[in-house]
Amino acid sequence: MDTQNWYDVQEFAPDTYQVTEAGRWNMFLFVGGEKALALDGGIGVGSFRKLCESITDLPIDHVLTHTHWDHVGAIHEWDSVGVHPNGKEKLAGDYSAGCKDFVENWKGRPFPEGFDPVTFTIPPGRFGRKVKEGDAIDLGGRTLRVWDTPGHSPCSISLYEDREGVLITGDLVKPGQPLFIQVPTAVFSDYGPSLRVLERIAAENEVNWVCSGHTEPHPDPSVIGRMAAFVEEAWAGKHEPPKKVEAGKWGIVDEYEGSGVKVWTNDNARR
Ligand SMILES: [Zn+2]
User: Backbone phi, then psi, for 53, in 5-degree steps?
Assistant: First the structure.
C-alpha cells in the first residue's frame, strides 16, 4: 500500500478504508465488485489517487461530501468529480490559502517525497456529475445511497453504504468534537433537520459505523439522535446564553454544550 509515509490508513470494515491526512482530515475508499468509490480529497499534500490505486485495480469514481478546502485537496487527480448541485461552482475555487497556512506551520512527520511546500497549491477540481438526494452508487455487491444534508454547508451530502452499514456524514456528525456551525457556509436552522434525516437512516437501516471528515469511525449511531435533540434545543434558544470561546482562526464563537455534544456557532449562521 502506497501511503507515501504520509497517510494513515485503516480498513475499519472489509474493503472499506478511512484514510487520514496529517491526523485530522479523513477521506474514504469503498471497494466493490466492479468499481471503487473515493470520497473527499483531504488537503492534497499527498497523492490520494496513488494510494487508492495501490489498494485496488478497479476503476475509481470520486465524490465529495462537500466543497470545503480541507476536503478538495486531491480531487484534481480525478478527471471527473461528483458533487452536490450547490457545490458545482465551488469546485474551481482557489483553496490554496487554507493549506498554505497548514504547510507553513506543520511540525509533524516529513512531507511526502517530492512535495514542495513553497510552490504547493490546490488545483481546481473538474466537475463530472451532480450527486444528490435519491442517487444510488452501485459498486457491485454494495451500494451507497445519497441524502441532501445541508447545515454545515449547502452542498453537504451524506451517504449510506448497505453491505457494511457505513454512514458517511461529511462534517455533520463529529462525535467528541465541536459541531462546526460557525463556518461561513453554515446555516444553523438546517442542521437539526439534517441530523434527523441521519437519525432516520440509522433507524431504518443497520448502521455499524458513523463516519465524518474529522473523527474516528464511531460504532454507536445513537449519538445522532442526541446531537439532533441538543442542536434543536440550542436553535430554539433553550441553552442561552452561550459561552464565548476563543476558537483559533474562527475567532470568538458561541459555544453550547450539553448531552455530550458541543456546538460552535455565530450570528452569521443564525439565519
Ligand atoms: Zn467542512
Answer: -70, -20
